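subagent[fold] <- orchestrator: predict structure for attached chain, return tokens only, no commentary.
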Amino acid sequence: MDSARKTVLRLLDRVEKNSSYSNILLNEELRCSGLSAEDKRFATALFYGVLERLITLDLIIKSRLDRPEKMPDGISLGILRMGIYQLLYMDSVPDRAAVDECVKLAKEFRGVSRGFINAVLRGFIRSGKKIPTVGEPGSAEYLSAQYSCPQELCLKWKEEYGDDAAAAMLGTSLGQPPVTVRTNTLRITPGSLAARLEEEGFTAVISDIDGCCIRISGSGSPEQSDCYKEGLFHVQDLSCQICCRALDPKEGETILDICSAPGGKAFTCAELMNGGGRLLAFDLHENRVRLIQSGARRLGLDNMTAMTGNGRVFSQDIPQADRVLCDVPCSGLGVIRRKPEIKYKKLSENDRLPQIQYEILDNSSRYVRSGGRLVYSTCTLSRAENDMVADRFLGEHPDFEKGALPEILGGERRYATITPDRFGSDGFFIAVFNKQR
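subagent[fold] -> orchestrator:
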């Protein structure tokens, strides 16, 4: 059986070569690994830690080389990244153990120099674990090194949100994200659910922002709990729950969730409807529709139906609705804490998204009844995908006007950008539109 560190090394190599989502790869690997629960926790922390600090780690490694232009690659670079991360950010690992385990790991791979690995790591310790300083304080170069974020993204956020907001967003892009769940109020109260979770060994704190949201920690994965298996909650970030509040679904109404998978917002809306009315959830892919259906069955949400549907193509079979949620595919820059590999993609790869997002929003508006509500949302922090798409929609649809936001977001008729530092939640954008009568 492979060690936790060898498992992480293999995962890092797969992410770099295949550009796959880290959470999907990690879950697959740990499920088949045979590692103990403790080793799985260590592997998870090391894997995500190295991913989110790649730029800083490489800057340190380069500073320790006699010839900085000759950076190692492949397995050697992966081992060094893991070693530097443990030395710098994992207090639970003694320095000697971090070095020894990396040297031991190097022995398992042909062509990897144990002496080189040992020299770089021990040299870093002797230097006092100093991180090289680059650029002027506050510059994109400086922020990139400090927060391990590409300079082009640092510059984008500085230009779009201002220096202070950008620094706060970069600061909250690191570290372990919170785990929050949504109470299934059709089956249990938030207080009773919190008590049940505490009995199962979790720490459970009811949010003072949304009384049905509970932040949990400890005791492993919430999906393994009895409460989850009994359908008493689903895992959902607070920002997503606020988005559902913005839609404000009512009992007896017809609600559409146009891009629904994996279904969390649809579940919350169905619960806000007290199990009444009709909620239709759509996704382009049949396997993702089955995922929504499975979640709805577990939660006992008989008022919702999931089916395939293309958000960019109008269908005569879809009914007119009182409220339509249009949570579109996006660049994901608001969830970097959960998927750190996202930030390393070239921003140009997102250039096509605003047009796709607009087409989905435009098509979704055709299902809204006179006097109804349309909510456009993303989990990204990009003006091009957020404000500019919403502005274009209003400019080309005079029959719609800005609607009021939930009170927690101020209640005004404007757009809402939720940065991670605001509530400790994911980054999110919400725009509410009302169709005039």
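orchestrator: received. Logging for downstream: The chain has a mean pLDDT of 94. The longest strand covers residues 368-378.
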